[in-house]
């Protein structure tokens, strides 16, 4: 054991100090040239002996320091050494001095409470951790959230004290936090890394005390073909970082550009468990209520009074207890056979403005004749797709082939570290060509990096056949990349007359990437987290691919003195069986409106009475700050997403100012604003330091990826 340590340290020392060794050798060689009379073997032996002596001495010095660190770390052997991109679920990370690596503390429990009403969810997340060391600690808490979550409240509980977070511009918040950290005050800082990944820095955690982090957010419910759905991520697939990625501050924050190093580690840390409770105000008994990835216990309460209307209404309660955090929670529900109204309008008033969230079901008729298509399939075969995701990708492609007829043509591009085109040009979808494609795909294996940009460049730059076919790209992937902003910009600049459709695979796809790529590519998206969803999911996707699109949508007011701001803006295209979700802010009183667009080459319109509302959405009413309604908060969150898109794609400088102004006004965490909380009194005595520890442990559970999956 000691020999292994000496050998390892000698090797490391030689690499780091090779410059010193070479200088010594050159000096001795020069000495040899001036003493030609001496024997060559004697000179060489002295050179090598002297060099070896220096290296061994330095190795022994480093080994002594390492053994000292080992003795300090004996009581911390249950910690895992990780980097931020390895975080697969909520985790407390202790920052180490002089290292990009963090020490992962054991997580005691995560508790999630979801309240769903209408098409809005109000979610509280509590996660309790313990500092088991004898030292004061600074820490990082990394956690995934839904990509459309509007994070607006934070509480940190350390021992018996509660610290409330306030929103500040990012630089100011960081300065506030660092000052408190230096002064020995307990403090917390919440920052957005991606729309679906956040971090909390916590300063001055006392020895052998627990910390409870509580945050709240609003989230819009999704709807497709009669099914409502909600998801909560419990894991994140580690992101691949291309070697030649552009150093874009919107794309990669400096402290996140890390690469994992361990290729075959087995998790030894504490298993992360979760309790999750859902309260679904359905108003009536449902025809379907199902959790896709977890077994849940659901109870219907038919005669419970609504807290707003004081009327008897039904709600469901669901519970997950002590579940391992390794798959996203996805809940779907469906009402009894009853046609939904064509327009659902959820609204609230706030600060002299009216805010609303529209769900519009356009009721598009099917085209009499299906248009011919030219489909390019992009199939991700990178290392992160290993296992269930790869199997799903193959089956999804097999289903896609069955939807093609001889009026269509297709191309297949598979990629990992490099893209490969199956055919020189798109081919007619004959049985022979489809059999050839399936034979090729069935033999593919998951390995290598996720060089999405190269695959997109091949697909978007490919010469199209000289015909009037619809040009569509179907992208099957888990989206496990870190350079999203660069990819979005490339799509925007090269999509031309094509349309991009994304299919998110696996139990933890990068939903932010999948949705935004489809939005910029003027297509749509579909998520398949379980093999039981595959057939229905692909049917929905190809229904969209096979029918005309509602385009050029605009919402105008009938009242000339009123103004409206919609989000997203511009309004995205709407595909067959899709609803249109649209947030709005109206200044100037209630008014009616008209939604117009183009469908199948003809003008299309739908009057919308914005003065009518289906329900007022219940929101949290915390005692520690003024109440900002959920609908207004979601409008601000979606408007911020618009501004951030403009900043990413078009480098519009005013977009950053607009984001900061909205975030400060609506108390939201964004790339440029953070939540910061500081305790007034000093907790850590000035003579005591908060030191990080050097530890040797494996990666978190579930990180069994091929070494090339993360560009290691």
Compile the SSE list and pairings.
Elements: H1 2-16, H2 18-33, H3 40-72, E1 80-82, E2 91-95, E3 102-104, E4 107-117, E5 120-130, E6 137-144, E7 150-158, E8 161-164, E9 166-169, H4 170-183, E10 185-194, E11 197-205, E12 210-220, E13 222-224, E14 227-232, E15 273-281, E16 286-291, E17 297-305, E18 312-324, E19 329-335, E20 343-350, E21 353-360, E22 373-380, H5 388-402, E23 409-415, E24 419-421, E25 427-428, H6 431-442, H7 452-460, E26 470-477, H8 484-494, E27 499-505, H9 511-520, E28 525-528, H10 534-546, E29 550-557, E30 563-567, E31 580-587, E32 592-599, E33 602-609, H11 630-650, H12 653-666, E34 673-682
Parallel strand pairs: 4-15, 22-23, 22-26, 26-27, 27-28
Antiparallel strand pairs: 1-3, 2-3, 2-6, 4-5, 5-12, 6-11, 7-8, 7-12, 9-34, 10-11, 10-34, 13-14, 14-19, 15-18, 16-19, 17-18, 20-21, 21-31, 23-24, 23-25, 29-32, 30-31, 32-33
Helix pairs in contact: 1-3, 2-3, 5-6, 5-10, 7-8, 8-9, 11-12
Strand percent estimate:
25-35%
Stretches where pLDDT is under 50 for at least 5 consecutive residues are: 1-44, 59-78, 252-269, 613-625, 691-712
Secondary structure class reads alpha+beta
CATH-scheme architecture of the largest domain: Sandwich
Radius of gyration: 29 Å
Described by strand count, sense and barrel closure, the largest sheet is: 8 strands, antiparallel
Tell me, briefly, the overall form. globular
The fold-level CATH name of the largest domain is Immunoglobulin-like
Annotation, overall tally of beta strands: 34
How many helical elements? 12
Which CATH class of the largest domain applies here? Mainly Beta
């Amino acid at each position: 054991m000691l020999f292994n340590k000496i050998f390892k340290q000698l090797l490391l020392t030689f690499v780091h100090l090779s410059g010193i060794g070479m200088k010594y050798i050159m000096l001795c060689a020069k000495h040899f040239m001036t003493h030609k009379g001496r024997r060559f073997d004697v000179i060489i032996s002295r050179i090598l002996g002297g060099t070896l002596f220096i290296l061994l001495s330095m190795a022994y010095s480093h080994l002594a320091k390492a053994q000292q660190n080992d003795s300090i770390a004996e009581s911390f052997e249950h910690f895992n050494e990780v980097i931020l991109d390895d975080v697969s679920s909520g985790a407390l990370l202790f920052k180490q001095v002089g290292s990009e690596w963090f020490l992962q503390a054991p997580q005691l429990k995560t508790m999630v409470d979801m309240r769903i009403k209408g098409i809005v969810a109000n979610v509280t997340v509590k996660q309790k951790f313990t500092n088991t060391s004898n030292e004061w600690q600074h820490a990082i808490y990394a956690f995934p959230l839904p990509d459309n979550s509007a994070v607006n409240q934070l509480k940190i509980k350390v021992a018996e004290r509660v610290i409330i977070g306030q929103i500040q511009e990012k630089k100011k918040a960081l300065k506030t936090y660092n000052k408190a950290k230096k002064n020995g005050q307990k403090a917390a800082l919440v920052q957005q890394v991606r729309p679906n990944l956040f971090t909390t820095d916590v300063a001055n955690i006392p020895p052998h005390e627990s910390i409870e982090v509580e945050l709240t957010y609003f989230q819009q419910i999704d709807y497709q073909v009669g099914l409502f759905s909600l998801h909560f991520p419990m894991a994140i697939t580690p992101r691949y970082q291309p070697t030649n990625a552009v150093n874009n501050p919107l794309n990669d924050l400096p402290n996140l550009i890390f690469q994992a190093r361990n290729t075959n580690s087995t998790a030894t840390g504490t298993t992360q468990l979760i309790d999750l409770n859902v309260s679904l105000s359905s108003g009536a008994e449902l025809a379907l209520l199902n959790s896709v990835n977890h077994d849940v216990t659901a109870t219907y309460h038919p005669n419970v009074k609504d807290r707003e209307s004081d009327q008897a209404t039904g709600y469901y309660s669901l519970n997950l207890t002590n579940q391992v955090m390794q798959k996203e929670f996805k809940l779907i529900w469906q009402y009894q056979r009853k046609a939904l109204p064509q327009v659902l309008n959820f609204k609230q008033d706030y600060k002299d403005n009216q805010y609303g969230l529209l769900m519009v079901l356009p009721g598009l008729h099917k085209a009499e004749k299906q248009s011919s298509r030219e489909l390019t399939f992009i199939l991700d075969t990178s290392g992160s797709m290993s296992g269930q995701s790869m199997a799903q990708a193959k089956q999804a492609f097999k289903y896609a082939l069955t939807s093609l007829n001889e009026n269509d043509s297709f191309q297949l591009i598979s990629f990992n570290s490099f893209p490969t085109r199956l055919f020189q040009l798109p081919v007619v979808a004959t049985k022979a060509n489809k059999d050839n494609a399936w034979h090729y795909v069935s033999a593919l294996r998951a390995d290598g990096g996720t060089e999405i940009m190269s695959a997109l460049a091949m697909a978007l730059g490919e010469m199209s056949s000289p015909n009037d076919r619809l040009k569509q790209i179907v992208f099957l992937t888990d989206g496990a990349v870190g350079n999203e902003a660069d990819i979005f910009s490339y799509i925007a600049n090269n999509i031309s007359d094509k349309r991009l459709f994304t299919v998110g695979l696996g139990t933890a796809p990068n939903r932010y990437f999948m949705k935004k790529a489809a939005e910029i590519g003027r297509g749509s998206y579909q998520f398949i987290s379980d093999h039981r969803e595959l057939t229905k999911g692909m049917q929905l996707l190809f229904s969209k691919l096979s029918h005309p699109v509602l385009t050029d949508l605009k919402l105008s007011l009938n009242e000339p003195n009123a103004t409206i701001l919609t989000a997203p803006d511009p309004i995205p295209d709407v595909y067959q069986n899709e609803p249109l979700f649209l947030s709005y802010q109206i200044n100037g009183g209630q008014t009616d409106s008209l939604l117009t667009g183009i469908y199948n080459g003809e003008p299309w319109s739908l009057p919308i009475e914005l003065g009518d509302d289906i329900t007022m959405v219940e929101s949290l009413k915390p005692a520690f700050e003024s109440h900002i309604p959920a609908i207004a908060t979601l409008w601000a969150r979606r408007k911020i997403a618009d501004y951030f898109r403009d900043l990413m794609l078009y480098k519009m400088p005013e977009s950053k100012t607009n984001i900061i102004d909205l975030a400060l006004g609506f108390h939201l965490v964004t790339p440029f604003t953070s939540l910061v909380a500081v305790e007034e009194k000093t907790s850590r005595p000035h003579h005591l330091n908060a030191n990080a520890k050097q530890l040797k442990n494996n990666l978190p559970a579930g990180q069994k990826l091929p070494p090339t999956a993360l560009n290691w």
